[in-house]
Design a protein that fits this description.
alpha+beta, eight-stranded antiparallel β-sheet, single chain
Length: about 160
């Protein structure tokens, strides 16, 4: 398996699992289902960096990065974020750097061990990718960015 930067994974959104195997980027291992009935299968590319593939088409639909662990035994990403996101550490800095979110969701009380969340916001992520990429930032209850997810399709949810 080739070691890719986060930016290189983002550029491969929409690629098929088979194509990534044939290019020597991923090992020829089966994807894992998170739970029965979920429409996503995953592959851990690095600690704190998970690739999510559509169950039907096996296309890379999300690159998920964990910056702050909110669950027991959850690993965090130690690599660098893309340059545009390096100063994004809180909800406030996210809006200062990325502008107004196009979607958001308020804080939610989750079952333990997660507890109170800080909600999330989705932004258009300017990059050279075609089709365009969205970035979703999930926050802790203190509004620290804990998770970053990159998608090609718009994130559907409550409008801001």
């Amino acid at each position: 398996m080739k070691k890719l930067t986060l930016c290189a994974w983002i550029e491969r959104l929409g690629s098929s699992h088979d194509a990534l195997i044939n290019q020597g980027i991923l090992p020829n291992l089966p994807l894992k289902s998170l739970f029965y009935g979920h429409d996503v299968e995953t592959f851990p590319a690095a600690p704190g960096l998970e690739l999510e593939f559509s169950t039907g088409s096996a296309k890379l639909k999300c690159v998920h990065v964990t910056l702050i662990s909110t669950l027991p035994d959850e690993l965090t990403y130690r690599g660098e974020l893309p340059e545009r996101l390096r100063g994004v550490t809180t909800g406030k800095t996210a809006r200062e750097i990325l502008g107004a979110p196009y979607r958001s969701h308020p804080p939610v009380q989750m079952p333990l061990p997660m507890g109170q969340t800080g909600g999330w916001e989705a932004f258009t992520y300017d990059c050279t990718c075609n089709p365009p990429v969205s970035v979703m930032l999930q926050y802790t209850s203190s509004q620290q960015v804990c998770d970053v997810a990159f998608f090609q399709e718009p994130i559907m949810a409550q409008e801001v």
